[in-house]
Amino acid sequence: MDLGSVDADSFGRSLRGIGLNLVVRDVLAEITFLETVFGMKAHQPSKDFAIVTYEGQIFQLHSDGTYAKNPLLGLLPENPPRGAGIEIRLYESDPDIAVEQAREAGFTILQEPTDKPHGLREAFILCDNGYAWVPSRPK
Question: Which of 73, 97, 118, 134 has the fewest C-beta atoms lying within 10 Å of its C-beta?
Answer without folding.
Answer: 118
